[in-house]
Amino acid sequence: MAQKTEVELTVQRTEDLAPRLRRVVLGGAAFEEYLAHHLDSTDTYVKLAFADGDDTVLRTYTVRWVDPEARELAIDFVTHGTEGLAGPWALSAQPGDTLRFRGPGGAYRPRPDADHHLFVGDESALPAIAASLAALEPGARATAFVEIDGPGHEVDLPSSGEVDVRWLHRDGATPGSTTLLDDAVRAWPWPEGRVQAFVHGESALLKSVRPYLLDGRVERADISVSAYWRRGETEEGFRAWKREQQDAVMRPGA
Predict the structure, then answer these.
(1) Where is the FAD-binding FR-type domain (predicted)?
(2) Is the CB of residue 63 less than 8 Å from the CB of residue 113?
């Protein structure tokens, strides 16, 4: 985690990228303070602060892009109507509204010496996948498996690399309840050479795609894998679950 800072930025504009994906562009007087701590990683994230009654709760989101010349950054929100805190805020956000956040953190960036880049994730990982594809050098080869609701939720993913994006449609299934990503990766003809993998999304990926990749296909140093959320859990419950997983790994004999 980079040196932490807390800033308050102002909404400049919003944009609907897909039926349940809204972009909020932020800027303002504190932008330079954020920029001083911004990371070169393509999975850079911040913790957004929202009021919940008398409490302040944090929600973790990826920074989709940063434009130093325009003095703006963008955060993409997956929305679920009135459910949650961050999504409803994004849906109602207007120019002039403010948002406080802490951070940044992040660690992943596509390696230029990898022979192939593999991206696996759902909507929660889409901003980081999009940022990573945009950072690929010309000629870099990549395959991205992205699980979404359906065809109407596909978005443009520009890249200078040679990218094969494979959209996997849930077609009404509950997010986090399918094996679409695991099935697709296991059916994929494995490429030659060194593969760098980015696997992020619902927690089931840790027990499905991760062990498959680490079974002689990808070196541990070449895989970035993390759960962004867990089906049926709030972010607070999800954080407690992640702490339990970390404690279990660190316990002697675990």
Answers:
(1) 4-111
(2) no
- Nearest Cα neighbor of 67 from 111, 34, 21 is 34
CA–CA separation, 195 vs 50, rounded Å?
Answer: 39
How many CA atoms, within 13 angstroms, populate the side-chain half-sphere of residue 16?
8
DSSP code at position 220: G
Provide the token pair at 249. Answer: 């790994």
For residue range 115-170, list pLDDT tens digits in order. Answer: 999 999 999 999 999 999 999 999 999 999 999 999 999 999 999 999 999 999 99
Do residues 109 and 42 make contact, with C-beta atoms less than 8 angstroms apart?
yes
Which one, of 121, 151, 126, 144, lies nearest residue 19 by Cα?
Answer: 151
DSSP 2: P
Cα–Cα distance, 190 to 212 (Å, whole number):
12
pLDDT, tens digit, 9 for 90 and up, residues 82-109: 888 999 999 999 999 999 999 899 999 9
pLDDT tens-digit profile of 2-17? 446 899 999 999 999 9
